[in-house]
Amino acid sequence: MSTFRNFKMVDYVVFGRGAFGQLDGILAPRRQGGAPMVFLVDHFFRDKPAFLSRVPQRGKDRLLFADVTEEPSTRQVDGLRDQIRAECGAISGIVGIGGGSTMDLAKAVSLMLTNAGSSADYQGWDLVTRPGVYKVGIPTLSGTGAEVSRTAVLLGPEKKLGLNSDFTPFDQIVLDPDLIAGAPATQRFFTGMDCYVHCIESLQGTYLNAFSRAYGEKALELCRQVFVEKDGWDGDSDERLMMASYAGGMSIAYSQVGVAHAVSYGLAYVLHTRHGEGNCIVFDQLEEFYPEAVREFRGMLQKHRIELPRGVTRGLSEAQVEKMVTVSLGMAPLWANALGEDWQRKMTRERLRALYARL
Ligand SMILES: NC(=O)c1ccc[n+]([C@@H]2O[C@H](COP(=O)([O-])OP(=O)(O)OC[C@H]3O[C@@H](n4cnc5c(N)ncnc54)[C@H](O)[C@@H]3O)[C@@H](O)[C@H]2O)c1
Ligand SMILES: [Fe+2]
Questions:
Q1: In contact, 156 and 149? CB cutoff 8 Å
Q2: Nearest in space to 308 (alpha carbons), one of 330, 351, 277, 287
């Protein structure tokens, strides 16, 4: 008999326009004496006083800005952990408010406040051994699925890989579509396409089962409604995209992502290309793997007037290309999902080098 994954999910979910206003009440029973809550807020909100005034700080609570100019690294996580320990001592919990990068930072810092050593030691699968401190995720961009996933993706000294564990999912998430309403159209597109790509990779992967299909099909339908069918963007689009991200994340929880993610990880490691944009650059060149979806994707690019960067791997050194190929081929489960258990015969170093050269 095969063994089925028994995966840990987010404990509490609140969804709705204005739900952010309930945060104070949600946190109240989680406060341990005078120990502060730490609010880790995406630096995009640094000069948004109206928003910051709604963060329910009490007593000795701290608000720290997450610098997400670059996507999160193990060094940044360790630094934040040290800072929080030094400045706050024991805390009641950490609340990450921002895009996928800020949410991953919050998850990882929560875990590193209770697990010894560097976060780089925990990049991989099921290496985390202790629950982190209470952690809350509040997305201000939708698409990554980081709000529901059991990973926190970090760029480390040797690899870009998540802290995948049963202790990684948030204890609470607050899904308030109003918080994503102000995102610039290009950023919204790139992050939204992360969800679209999750759906395609999950639905066309070999790991697919009825659980993943149910969530993946729903997420794909919602993505199509907002990016293909509707003209213009409104509050209803924010709600649909927020639920697409959630369902897309649930879909890959029980399956896996595929070629676009495997290739885009190599790009991110060497060139620090951001996740959503990198996936789009790669997906555009994946007609041989996902022909119909790539055609649909190109239609969405046109409709939303998105110009993808071209020639991003031009002029790279031999060593850099080799590193990209190595990082990408290191994502074995992604390739196995996309191409089957004999993926190594199908995706040789040469074939992957040629793919990178086209980006
Ligand atoms: N844990 C997971 O399961 C998972 C899955 C996919 C991706 N990721 C990670 O998520 C990250 C990508 O997340 P993302 O696409 O949400 O972007 P992001 O968090 O990297 O943010 C992109 C930019 O948008 C800004 N921003 C955030 N909210 C905004 C808002 N409301 N309005 C305007 N600007 C805003 C940020 O400051 C940043 O400059 C990557 O680090 C990737 O590795 C994690
Ligand atoms: Fe992704």
A1: no
A2: 277
Ligand nearest to the CA of 149: 1
Nearest residue (by CA) to ligand 1, atom 7, is 144
Instruction: Please name the helix (run of DSSP H) or strand (run of DSSP E) that holds residue 216, with its range, or none.
Output: helix 210-224
Q: What's the distance, Cα to Cα, between the start and end of the chain in Å?
A: 43
Burial class (CB in 10 A: 0-12, 13-18, 19+), 137: buried
Q: Is the CB of 269 under 6 A from ligand 1?
A: no
Q: Is 12 exposed, middle or buried (0-12, 13-18, 19+ CB in 10 A)?
A: exposed
The residue whose CA has the least distance to atom 37 of ligand 1 is 44
Q: Read off the tokens for 350.
A: 């040469």
Q: 122-167, pLDDT tens digit by residue?
A: 999 999 999 999 999 999 999 999 999 999 999 999 888 899 999 9
* 17 SS3 class: coil
Q: What is the pTM of this model?
A: 0.97
Distance CA 131, CA 120 (A): 17
Half-sphere exposure of 284 (CA within 13 A, CB side): 21
CB 170 within 8 A of CB 273: no
